[in-house]
C-alpha cells in the first residue's frame, strides 16, 4: 500500500514489485515520502509491516552563496570573451536558467552564435557589447525551493595607449608618421631606408586603465664598409672598337647604384664596360667602392687601346 492507501500490486512507470516482495520506487520525489505497508497472506493468516520512507531534498545553492538571493558585480571588456559562473548544487540536481534584460530566458544548456549557457550553468558571452550592460539573473530550482543570483554586468570600453620610444628618446604614438618612422594603427613601427644610425633599443609601451606593459626591442643594423674582392689587372689591353670589361667586384652593405658614363657602363655588380674603345679611353682607371660606412680603392689599371691591324 502506498502512502495514499493505493494498492501497489504490479509494475508501473513509478513502481516495480520484485518476486521476493521488494518494492522499487523510480525517480523518487518529495511527494513519494510517507508510510508504505507491506502485507503477506496465506491460508494460515497474514502479517504486515509499515516502512517509513523519507525523500531527502536540499534547496539549491548557487556558487556557494547562502540565502535565496544574492547580488554580485561583474565587469566585462567589449569584444573580449566573458564567462559568468552559475554553479548550482542541491538534491535533486537543480534546473538552471538565465534571465537577461528584456525578460529573455535562456535554459541550460542553450547555444547560439553569441551566447551559450553550458550544462554546468556557466553563461558564455563570446563578444560582449555595451548594450549587454544591465542586470542578469541566474535562477536554480528544485523541489526544495529556488535560489537566485543577480549579476550587475558592466561592459566597459578599454582605451588603449600604445607608444614607441626611439633610441634618441623621441616618443611616437599611433597612428603617426615622422620622417622615416611610421607607427601603424595596429601598433607596428615601420622604419624606411634604415641606416646604422637607427640601431639601438626601441621600447614599446602599451597601457590602459588596468595597467601597462613594456617591450624592449634591440635593433642591430647590419652594415659593413665595402671591400673589393675582384679587381682588374695592373695593365689592360683593348682593341679599338671592341668592348672591354674592367672587373671591380665589391662586397658591402649598403651597395652602390650602377651609373652610366657616356659610352662607359657601370654594371650593377661593379664591372666597368667600355662599349667602343678609342684612344680617348686609354689611360689610368681606379676601381673605387663607396657606401655610407667607408670606401675602398686599392685596385687600378692602365688601359692601352690598340689600333686594329690592316
From TrEMBL:
Pfam families: I-set, Ig_3
Ig-like domain location: 59-152, 162-220, 226-304
Superkingdom field: Eukaryota
CDD domains: Ig
GO terms, molecular function: cell-cell adhesion mediator activity
Gene3D superfamilies to which the protein is assigned, alphabetical: Immunoglobulins (2.60.40.10)
Coiled coil: none
GO BP: axon guidance; dendrite self-avoidance; homophilic cell adhesion via plasma membrane adhesion molecules
InterPro entries found in the cross-reference section: Ig-like_dom, Ig-like_dom_sf, Ig-like_fold, Ig_I-set, Ig_sub, Ig_sub2
Keyword Ribosomal protein set for record: no
Database matches in PANTHER family: BASIGIN RELATED, CELL ADHESION MOLECULE DSCAM2-RELATED
Name listed for the protein in its UniProt record: Ig-like domain-containing protein
Organism: Myripristis murdjan (pinecone soldierfish)
